[in-house]
Specification:
The protein is built from no helices and 13 strands. It is mainly beta. The protein has two domains: 29 residues; 104 residues, Tumour Suppressor Smad4 (Sandwich). The N and C termini lie far apart (64 Å). About 6% of the residues have low confidence.
Length: 168
């Protein structure tokens, strides 16, 4: 146990901050910074396929999501179904499309907010019972009820607005 010098609260061994007051804890096994030498790395090796960055161009996608606030375009690959949401620490289930980098938390996007899927030549959208709801062209939709989408429709996950663009 490590006793906080600030509030005298007993914390678990290995804790870096007091769970009671948040003060930094010091222990006799204090962490030290070390230099790591990179001289041993062999930079003469040719890059493997894992080392070479290959940008995704979306040429095999059936559609895309255009984020109205940022102007970003997220291609929907040849996969037929995607979950939309945001990643949260400790979350066991991850969405297929993570909207966290686009201010999803501030916009009220749930961790698993909605599903968009292709069914033949039709596009379906379903809210997964999110806290702040989903809207298609300004109209709130009922949770767990599939709705058809058309090219150019505006959907909102909470306050995060995006436009659906479908390739012919």
């Amino acid at each position: 146990m490590i006793v906080c010098q600030n509030c005298k609260h007993s914390n678990l061994s290995g804790s870096m901050f007091c769970s009671e007051c948040g003060a930094q804890l010091s222990s006799k096994d204090a962490l030290t910074t070390q230099n790591i030498s990179t001289n041993q790395l062999n930079s003469d090796l040719p890059p493997t396929t894992e080392d070479v960055y290959q940008p995704f161009d979306g040429s095999n996608s059936w559609g895309s999501i255009f984020l109205l606030d940022t102007g970003q375009v997220l291609p929907l690959s040849s996969k037929n179904e995607f979950t939309l949401g945001r990643i949260s620490e400790g979350q066991p289930i991850m969405p297929d499309i993570d909207l966290s980098p686009y201010q999803a938390y501030a916009g009220g996007v749930s961790r698993l907010h909605a599903i968009i899927k292709r069914d033949g030549n039709r596009i379906l959208f379903m809210d997964l019972g999110s806290a702040n709801g989903s809207y298609i062209n300004g109209k709130r939709i009922q949770p767990n009820d599939e709705q058809y989408l058309n090219h150019g429709d505006i959907i909102a996950l909470g306050k995060l607005k995006m436009q659906i663009l479908v390739k012919n």
